[in-house]
Amino acid sequence: MKMPNLEQAYQFCQNMAQSHYENFPVASILLAKKLRRPISVIYAFARTADDFADEGDAPQQQRLEQLEDFSIALQAIKASEYQGDNPIFIALADVIIQHQLPIKLFEDLLDAFKQDVVKNRYANFEEVLDYCTRSANPVGRLLLHLVGQTNDQQLKQSDAVCTALQLINFYQDIVQDYTESNRIYIPQDELAKAGLKDSDLINPDSQKIAPLIRSFYQRAQLIMTYGAELGAHLSGRMGWEVRAMTLGGITTLNKLMSQNDNELLNRPRLNKLTLLKILFISCSKKRYLYHANKQLNII
User: Fold this and answer.
1) In Å, how far are 66, 186, 247 from 275, measured between CA atoms?
2) Predicted confidence (pLDDT) per residue in 238-255, tens digit
3) What pLDDT digit, counting tens, does each position of 76-100 carry?
4) What residue ranges define each of the domains in the chain, with the CATH number in brackets?
5) Using CB atoms within 10 A of its CB, is residue 103 exposed (0-12), middle (13-18) or buried (19+)?
6) 3 state SS of 140
7) What is the pLDDT of residues 272-288, one digit of tens each?
């Protein structure tokens, strides 16, 4: 196989990102054109590694070996010694250099994907949060690095938004994660304290499970409250994108919280009208902040 040149490597990543645009904002009209290329490379890296961890029926050892190959390639980029022919890493090496992205953030993502292979239960909420610091927070930090907005407060607010979004994703997919991947992000100690077993997540007793699930909604809301202001301080299309993603998460969380006890494990859907409303609100920093704070019960 002929080694792709840099332009071909970027095109490979952009094609991958565009083919999965429903899962990532790469194709979003909100993003400035100059950001789509580096973000598509970050996406291609994360998507491929995530597929190694979750997709198909490869044995555990093979998945870990594939992820370790990615770790080795990252270390080669770190040492300016990457000589492979993987278009993702050819492009990634250029993105990391051009935008001075911390290698540690990519290492954290890989560490989280490796954890996905070997761990499907979490002893306590602290373990869940620790996972979020490596599976979600690096993405937000990478986006901030791309636009040069990396003061301490911005990074902490980004971490809060990303962790909250990850938690919201967990809570709307409780049944699906358990039935399809045998993965549970509800801490085992809190399930036991509520008198619940893993199997109760399929046929739940609403009187037992509702207070527990609602407590997790409240935690996600509290974490999001700390970070929601970030979008109001970011300018340009990236700011619009961040505001829209944050408000989308807040809106989803509110839908979860407003469900009846016997519906708590149902996945809410945001219809097209709601999504358009989110985009409209998010184009204005002032309007976004008002609606975000209102939904988070800050005002």
Assistant:
1) 37, 28, 10
2) 999 999 999 999 999 999
3) 999 999 999 999 999 999 999 999 9
4) 1-118 (1.10.600.10), 120-299 (1.10.600.10)
5) middle
6) helix
7) 999 999 999 999 999 99
pLDDT at position 177:
94
Q: What's the chain's length in residues?
A: 299
Dihedral angle sign, alpha carbons of residues 87, 20, 237, 167:
negative
Q: Is 8 helix (H, G, I), strand (E, B) or coil?
A: helix
> Angle at the Cα of 105 (from 104 to 109), degrees rounded to 5?
115
Residue 266: the pLDDT is 84
Give the pLDDT of residue 12: 96
Residues 6+ apart with CB under 8 A from 88: 9, 12, 13, 41, 44, 45, 48
- Nearest alpha-carbon partner for 26 in 8, 52, 46: 46
| Spatial separation of the C-alpha atoms in residues 86 and 61, rounded to whole Å | 21
Q: How far apart are CA 279 and CA 253, in angstroms?
A: 17
